[in-house]
Amino acid sequence: MTATHEHHSPTAAGSGASATAAFKESSTRRSTAGSSPERVAGIVGDILKAIDDVVHRHDVTYPEYQAAKAWLMSVGEGGEWPLVLDVFVEHFVEDQVSRSQHGTKGSIEGPYYLPGQAKLSAECTLPMRPDEKGTPLVLSGQVRDVDGNPLPGAEVDIWHADDEGYYAGFAPHLPDGNLRGVVVTDDHGRFAIRTVQPAPYQIPHDGPTGALLESAGWHPWRPAHIHLMVRADGHRTITTQLYFEAGEYLDSDVAAATKPELVIAPADDGAGVRRVTYDFELEKD
Ligand code: MBD
Ligand code: FE
């Protein structure tokens, strides 16, 4: 079979299982620091009260309760909890955390971050297939602290979907590490990353998350985006995403994770390469 579309569409269950495994591997995400019985009771108690409020306001019936229960079970069985939570809930948490964050705006991490990617020098091309499709894109910029001092040796950890909207590590046809890398800034804190423009991302529609979207009449799309995690010693890591001006679904992101400050406008350089600069500002720990 030739390298065309259908045969390599990853399944919801496949990418869900990969996302679940990736999350479980990262122990740093499960710190219980700051927890106490009072805090658990307060937070969980208020979540239950919010559900109570919804049940009353919508006069929820037993069949609806049983349908919700069946759906929640299928989300677990399909390994789609990382997807469901990061699409529908993470943006609330990110919004709250960002209130105490200075410098570059953050956005949600989503389910497809994989640590430990290839370290690349400041001026680099992301790992890609020899025939990688998509418009060439060069993202360059500088990492600085909030006082404007450059941060040499900072890490720009970048990952994004390919020209068909698929992520390496979550779609079996893609080589590991494709369109992912950890770029180390130069002596002036600068970087220049060559890659290809990602396509909008469609939430897998053959599993329970897709079924919910369909039942609610909501579309399954995220606008095209590039994920970044920018780290420097002694500074607060920024997890964010960049979006493209005039991109489809910018105003209706199913994951509600766009911010006007994160929209870039690459310009064609006359040789078929789109170029854009974006600088990152990190606050001290
Ligand atoms: C993605 O690529 C993503 O960024 C989010 C937040 C959810 C699902 C897929
Ligand atoms: Fe994404």
Strand order of the largest sheet: 1-5-4-9-10-11
**Low-pLDDT segments:** 1-7
The count of domains is 1
Structural class: alpha/beta
- Helix count equals 6
CATH homologous superfamily classification = Aromatic compound dioxygenase
Mean pLDDT: 94
Proportion of residues in helical segments: 25-40%
- CATH C-level class: Mainly Beta
Secondary-structure arrangement, i.e. CATH architecture: Sandwich
Could you say which overall geometry the principal axes of the C-alpha atoms support?
Answer: globular
> What hetero molecules are bound to the protein chains?
3-methylcatechol, fe (iii) ion
Short description:
This is Catechol 1,2-dioxygenase. The chain has 285 residues and is α/β, with parallel strands linked by helices.
Task: Compile the SSE list and pairings.
Elements: H1 12-25, H2 37-57, H3 62-77, H4 81-88, H5 90-98, E1 119-120, E2 123-125, E3 136-145, E4 155-160, E5 180-184, E6 190-196, E7 201-202, H6 208-216, E8 221-222, E9 225-231, E10 238-244, E11 263-264, E12 267-268, E13 274-277, E14 280-282
Parallel strand pairs: 1-5, 2-6, 3-13, 3-14, 10-11
Antiparallel strand pairs: 3-6, 4-5, 4-9, 7-8, 9-10, 12-13
Bound molecules: 3-methylcatechol and fe (iii) ion.
Descriptive report:
By secondary structure, the chain is α/β, with parallel strands linked by helices. It has one domain: Aromatic compound dioxygenase (Protocatechuate 3,4-Dioxygenase, subunit A, Sandwich), CATH 2.60.130.10. The protein has helices at 12-25, 37-57, 62-77, 81-88, 90-98, 208-216; strands spanning 119-120, 123-125, 136-145, 155-160, 180-184, 190-196, 201-202, 221-222, 225-231, 238-244, 263-264, 267-268, 274-277, 280-282. The strands form three sheets. A six-stranded mixed beta sheet has the order 1-5-4-9-10-11, with no helix packed on it. The radius of gyration is 20 Å and the shape is globular. The termini are far apart. Mean pLDDT is 94; it is low at 1-7. Fe (iii) ion binds next to strand 9.
